[in-house]
Please model this.
Amino acid sequence: MNPSPLSTSLRFVTTCLIVGAFAGCVPRACTSCQAVTQPFAPTEADFANSFAVETRYDKAEQTLTVLLRLQPGYHAYAPGEKVGVPLDVVIQSQDGWRVRQPPQIPPGQKKDLGELGTSLVLTGDVPVVVRLEKRKADAGPIEGIVKVHVCADGACGFPQEHRFVVHVP
Model:
C-alpha cells in the first residue's frame, strides 16, 4: 500500500524535527510526494529575525496585550491549526495575578498549503489580549511565554518560545 501524500509529508516533517536539529535542515513542502531534506540557507529565510514581541499592560482594563510583530513574508499559525503549531500565550506569574479568560488570539486567514491541506495563518501585527486579575496590591511582575511557530512560503522554522516579563507599577 502506498502512503498518502499527507502521511509522507507528515513523516518527513517529524523526521526533520527530530533529526534536523542536528543536521541544520528545515522541512520543505514536497511537490512530488517524495520529501527531501535540504540544508537551511540563511538567504532563504531568517527565522531568528522573523518576529518581535512587545507587551503592554492596561491598568484600568486589567489587560495584558502581547503584540507579535511578524516581518513581511512570514506567518504564524492561528488557533485551530492542524498542520503547524498554533500561537499561544501562557501566563506563568503566580505572584498575585490570575488569568480571568484564556488569551484572545485572532482567528487567522485560510491559506492553501497544497498537499498539506489548508492552514489558518496570522500575518503582520498580531495582538493577543489576556484579561488578568490583580489579586494583591504588591503583586509581582507578569511573566509569561509566547509560543510561536513561524514559517515563510516553502520553509518553516522550529517552534519557539519567547519569554517576557512585564513590571506593573
User: Anything to note?
Assistant: Confidence is low (pLDDT under 50) at residues 1-43.
